[in-house]
Amino acid sequence: MYNIIINNTNILYVKGLSMTRLILLFSLILLFMPLFCMSAHLEKLETVTIEFGKAEHQVGIDKGSGEHWKPLFFDVDEEGNIHIPDFYKARIIVIDKKGGLIKSKPCPKGISPRMNYFSRTSKGMYVTYGDYSLSLIDEKGNLIWDRMLGYGAIPRFIWANNVGIFLVLPGDDERSIVFDYYSNQPIGRFGFMDKNKGIPMVMTENNGRFTFTLSRMVNIPESGYPVGAFAADRDGYLLFVDAHNKSIFKKQGDKSEYFYLFSEKGTLLNKGTISYPEKGTRGTGFWTICDKDFHIYKNYFYEDYMEIVMYGFR
Questions:
Q1: pTM
Q2: Which domains does the chain have, with CATH numbers?
């Protein structure tokens, strides 16, 4: 046990601890202090209510089987409009921030109740995964291609941007499998091996490289040397990267979700939490996305409608 002492010349030292080790100790405390501090709750900025039903402006659901099969996924474009795969009506709908219907795009293929992923790229295309198939849909709702990956192939992680589509499938080698947008062919595996475990990696439009392991997620600059970033377990993942390689990571907790905003050099800029809803009071937030202004969006489900809530850092 160390005793901190201030002597007559007001010089602080630690009995039994050298000055070098003392400096190292305080450096470690300053480095990891932001990660142990309690995060402030993200502020709720806007709420969009979307009704379930058969009308044109409503989202279709199936109540016949006793379970409510409903669209769990959505995405937000550059203007803040919400895109939802309304599979029971074979369309993708676009809704404004007030809940008004902007567009209804017929989409007979590529979306289904058994979807595992849905996102919109900055070029206006949609990437979906469902029924063990990876699909690319154009901005009008037409299927460009569909690639079957095999029964039981449910990705552990999908990241889609204008560089390619990155998937991590269960298996011995869990590096990212990168698919080309136009040929739908796998370009190869992205990432590296560490003690016989695959370390997935994604690449952004600005040549930013992000890797995530069992214990650490970092931004890898062009030099190839990782810069410091938030240490997280497998429940954490990369949520969004902007045009300047600033990034947001999300981590699941027992009672809350934690969000960490980093600079392009891996410096922690902000952090916040969103608490899970209390049981019996409202639906569970299933899908989480982030826009270019680092607003966080989550969807919550009720009996006859759903809410998409936008949160912001304080």
A1: 0.79
A2: 1-37 (no CATH), 38-312 (2.120.10.30)
